[in-house]
Every structure is written in structure tokens, then in C-alpha cells.
Amino acid sequence: MAEEKVAIRLTVLEIDLKKIEQNIVQYKKKLKNVSFMAVVKANTYGHGVIEISKLAIINGAQYLGVATIEEGIQIRKSGIDIPILILSAILPEQFQICSQYVLNITISSNQFFKKLCELLDENVLDIHVNIDTGMHTLELIQMKFIHLLKDSIHKKVIIHCANSAASINLPESYFDMVRIGLGIYGY
Ligand SMILES: Cc1ncc(COP(=O)(O)O)c(C=O)c1O
């Protein structure tokens, strides 16, 4: 007998976009002189990635951050054309697809650093170098690689570090851009 698929525990989310907009506006007001990356990973934790991304852009977000290449592609296919950063590490084999959808990449592996830099020479993608500042969630990029990068690529360097909480409490962590996730949703 074919197995019937029945939703046993349905969840309904009622989302007040006005409230979400207010949250974004409050952050923008506070962070006048730094760029704003809206972290919209994991379908914006169920809020609806395309709606929230558009709302963030209308209210001044200059960058979007996602966890995976698939999330980035979904956003690109909706017509959104602002810079998107894949926050997690990618493999050199995935570079082509990132390039095709103009998804900027994070390098967080000493092993792939050189390879990815070579690929970048022929492309227009921006790269973000993940430096472990203590969370130890990703491999540490060694400073010697950073110097190598600075010498070989002549692009504007932007530094970003702060999440939602740091963007409220720690002005010294703002640098050039903040990455706001949970704060957009009111947490
Ligand atoms: C690399 C990175 N930066 C920033 C954020 C946003 O953090 P928060 O939700 O605490 O604002 C996340 C969220 O997962 C992240 O993975």
C-alpha cells in the first residue's frame, strides 16, 4: 500500500512586514556610516527569503548574505541584483556556478586559498576572507595568505565583523559593514 503523506503538525506563521521593516529602519538609523548586509539565510528562518530580501533592499541594505549556493541562486532567479555573499566555505569545483550567478564567495580554507585566488583573476566576483576571531567554526586563514592576496589583487578592501548584537552594543566592531540577521526578525 502506498504511504500516505499527511501533515501531522502544521505550523502557520503570521508575519507583520511592517514590524520587520521597522526593525531594519532602526538598524539603518543607528548605523548611518556603514554598509548593511541583510543575512537572509535558511529562508530567513521561515519568514520568506524573497519578501524579506526585497524589504531589506528597499530600506537600504546594500548586501545580502546566505548560507548556501542554492539560496543565492534562488535569490538571483527572483531578479534581485545586489551583491550576495555565500557565507559558508565553497570548494574550487563550485566556483563556476558562483561565477554564473554572480555570488561572491568566502574563503575560509588555507588549502583552497591559492586555487580560488587563481580562479578569481579571470572573474568579477568579490571574495571575502574568513579570519577566525575565536569562534573556531571554520579553519583559520593564516595572515601570510592575506598579505599574498593584498599584493596580487587590487580591489577595495572592506572589513566586516559585527552581527545584530554587536551592531547594537559594540561600535568598535562596525568597520565598513555590519551583517544583520536575527535583528531583522526582532530577536
Ligand atoms: C557569518 C554570519 N554573519 C552574520 C550572521 C548574522 O548573525 P545574527 O543573526 O546574530 O545577526 C550570521 C548568521 O548566522 C552568520 O552566519
What is the rounded Rg?
Answer: 18 Å
How many domains? The number is 1
CATH architecture: Alpha-Beta Barrel
List SSEs in N-to-C order. Answer: HEHHEHEHEHEHHEH
Strand order across the biggest sheet? 5-4-3-2-1-6
Strand segment tally: 6
Low-pLDDT stretches are none
Describe the structure.
- By secondary structure, this protein is of the alpha/beta class.
- The protein has a single domain, classed as Alanine racemase (TIM Barrel, Alpha-Beta Barrel).
- About 40% of the residues lie in helices and about 15% in strands.
- The protein has a 6-stranded parallel sheet.
- Strand 3, helix 5 (about 95-100) and strand 4 form a beta-alpha-beta unit.
- It is globular and about 50 Å long.
- The chain starts with 16 loop residues before the first helix and ends with a helix.
- The protein binds pyridoxal-5'-phosphate.
- Pyridoxal-5'-phosphate binds near residues 165, 179 and 181.
Q: Which descriptors apply to this entry?
A:
globular; six-stranded parallel sheet; alpha/beta; binds pyridoxal-5'-phosphate; 187 residues; TIM Barrel; 6 strands; 9 helices
Summarize this entry quickly.
This protein has 187 residues and is α/β, with parallel strands linked by helices.
